[in-house]
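Appendix B. Chain record.
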Amino acid sequence: MKFLFPEFLWAFAVLLIPIVIHLFNFKRYKTHYFSSLQFVKHVDQQTRSTQKLKHILVLISRLLAFIFLVLAFAQPYFSDTDSAALKKETVLAIYIDNSFSMQVRGIEGELLSEARESAQAIIDEAPQGTQFIIGTNEMSGVEQRRISKIDALEKLDKITYSPLTRTLDEIIEWQERAIAKSEGFETEEDDEHSFVQSVILSDFQRHKISKSSKLKLQHFEFHAVQLAPEQRENIYIDSAWFSTPIRKIGLKNEINVSVVNTGSEPLQNVEVTVSIEKFQKSFYIDLPANGKKSTSLTYTDKSKGFKTGQITVADDHVLFDDTYYIAYEVKDHANVLILNGEDAIENVGIVLDLEDYYVVESNKITAITLDNFKGKDLVILNGINELSSGVQNYLTDFYENGGSLSLFPGKTPSISSWNQLLSKVKLPLIGTRISSGTRIKSLNFDDNFIKGALQDRSDELNLPSVSSSFRPIVSNTTNYNTLITMQNGLPLLAYSSGKGNVYMFYSAIHPDWGSFSRDALFSTVVLRMSELSQRTQPIAMTIGDQSVYPIHKKLNQEEVIHLTKEELDFIPQTTERSGVSYISLNQFDKFEQLLAGNYGLSSEEPIGNISLNYSRVESILDYFTEAEVLGIFDKKGATNVVFAEMDSMSSPVSQITIEKPFDYWKLCIVLTLIFVLAEMLLVRFWKS
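Structure tokens predicted for this chain:
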């Protein structure tokens, strides 16, 4: 026999009290005088033996009552019983899904609240000595530790919503790792002293099923408890974006908003509100059933600087996805670097000097360093023939980090060096020089580049001519759009969009090759390239999907970036590549829980703002069926699985049988009461 609380055995010392009372009779006797004691002595001899027996039985009853009362508090158990639950240590792993989809209302409130209450009831019903592993979507190392009943109840009170999303495969594998880590075994044969039960409380939202390995610990007993919502309708802001990347003072901004309705009924007059700084406007839209609708509105920024805002939809069901945060910067200038070669012309710089908005730096291609690229939005190659490997690396890194390139080759370009650069930016290579069919035929008015620069779509435009061009060589790796087409059907000006924009002019802009550089179309093209090449940060980022945020401002090496929001002031990790600083957002899993909202970025002075939004994966209220849940367990190799759906007032405690040993302390309480009652009967009814 062993005891759960052996410290109570010290209470056996109380047994000395009834023994002392029995040995020393403290009763006072009263003297009576009789004329003859002959008959009194006879009666006394007959009753003494009876009284002695009575006193012994009363003493035994008292001692046994005290003994079993002490044992009840010590809670005995037998380690050599045949019961599997007693042979092994009981471990109860409870996993509570605290993703945002658990905000949906169930029968008795939000699903997360129901899950916490159900888990509390399960813990209360568990026998003393059971060890618990309480897991959430955090899946941290701290959650893998075994804890007591009291600590488990305290852990439940601290569980709140998390932006993290976990699949059922991940939950099962995490629980297996938690048990294996705490026990130090890897297979079922290694585990000879633990009986493990797993309770998973979740809505079992439908996620992509991944191919995963089978369970190594086959002894798990799983209880999958699905908490069902009252309704599955939800309205949320899916995304927001600007029609053009340009943010300038006095320029009209067109912002687009995508709103989704997951319900089976169409909705009318759903209110959407856009708030950006002092601008605020509400409008109403109609949403189709199980569909989305995009709408837009225009407004004007009247001042430069950093702007933050939010877009909200009126919905009282699921709240985390009703607001979409945005942030951007209205600039008063753009930085352009012109790299001049042997066949450079002055017209490039003259065109940019027409507007004060552009800050221009000109350098010879042979005298540049990496510092020349820092803080630039656009780099223009002006009449360059030879591109060294170092210059190619500078240009490629600049493009990979969000910069834009405008490529105007010279009259005798090095085909090999130019093609090395073009292949890296996925544009058609240049071939031999051709002189037939090189007159400009048409402009691509369907592209936003031309659409935003020229309002007149007339085919009778007086277009300039080029006398010669380079034949573009198109391959399977190219990905480009044509802006200007020649009569021979080949592109004269093309571009590709990646992290930045790359524009390629398949001719020389030198006057010897035509009148293009002296025409108004040339000025329009150069200004439009510069306009669309402003480096901008993302107006919004999704927590968990995007891990780095670019800062294009030129910073000193000593500057420390702070991420701030109300009382939060955090210094994130910062790396620099090609003059662009990147802050990491992955650290917050270790230090602070990132919440959706607008954050400030600053060092010695304000740097900008970053807007973070929760992933909309949890917004789609679609759930696995019982057969699908059991199928996932089956693929994992779990055979001992019980499924229960909490769609009524019933409690999961009534459907989950927690394996536990026989409660010997209850038997001890019963025996204590029996012997107390026996003592009372002996004293009351056994008369001398």
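Further analysis of this model is presented in Appendix C.
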